[in-house]
Write a structure and sequence with these properties.
binds coenzyme A; 6 helices; Aminopeptidase; 5-stranded antiparallel β-sheet; 8 strands; alpha+beta
């Protein structure tokens, strides 16, 4: 598995971004509801283009594990992004899972389904020891996704422009237990 790996779940394809994703990405980055808890706020079309180009280049030149477009198999629509990679805002750069879905597709389980696949990749292929998620406590949907993925709050950490956020974590061992528990229910 490398920068080009395409992941698959029951309903989704998680593939690297291309220049053709610009309109789909801009639908998210221009929406204040989607960007409410992102430090940068909403983006212009040009800033979105620059960001997308940077994402595509970085995925090829370095190997930040996985930043993937979330594409619904049934419609071939790009509905969001899911990222597993180092969190540069925290000391020691722990590996973070993050997710964002276009407003019109919230509530379909896409963030959870996509993130679960990247977390599986992180623990079972990359042999990571721990994965974290930083969640603003006001962001109920994001907190719920983290919980559905088996993560739990360890501590509060100071976050730029957001104040204290909840640091969710799951260790490799807890993940194995959580997978076992899921398969027994
Ligand atoms: C957070 C986000 C990615 C969730 O995407 P999604 O595809 O709708 O998530 P899912 O459908 O997998 O799960 C959402 C869960 O949150 C619940 N939820 C939604 N709004 C909620 C709220 N205000 N408070 C508590 N729970 C809420 C849903 O009911 C669902 O839980 P359930 O399956 O138990 O019913 C989406 O809301 C989003 O893109 N938000 C803006 C970007 C963002 O904040 N990203 C997180 C930063 S890391």
């Amino acid at each position: 598995m490398n920068a080009d790996t395409v992941f698959e779940t029951e309903r989704l394809i998680l593939r690297p971004f291309t220049g053709d994703d610009l309109d789909a990405v801009f639908e998210r980055t221009s929406d204040p509801d989607v960007m409410l808890y992102q430090n940068c706020g909403t983006l212009t079309f040009e800033d979105t283009r620059t960001g997308l180009e940077r994402t595509i280049r970085a995925a090829l030149e370095t190997w930040p594990f996985a930043i993937r477009a979330i594409v619904v198999k049934a419609t071939n629509q790009n509905v969001g992004v899911c990222h597993l990679g180092p969190c540069h805002r925290l000391e020691g750069h722990p590996i973070e899972i993050s997710y964002s879905i276009v407003r019109a597709r919230w509530g379909n389980g896409y963030a959870t389904e996509a993130s679960a696949r990247l977390i599986q990749y992180g623990f079972e292929s990359l042999d990571l020891a721990e994965i974290i998620a930083a969640v603003n406590p006001k962001n109920g949907a994001s907190a719920r996704v983290a919980e559905k993925l088996g993560l739990s709050v360890r501590e509060k950490v100071e976050w730029p422009k957001q104040g204290l956020v909840d640091l969710y974590t799951i260790t490799k061992e807890a993940y194995a237990d959580w997978r076992r528990a899921c398969s027994n229910t």
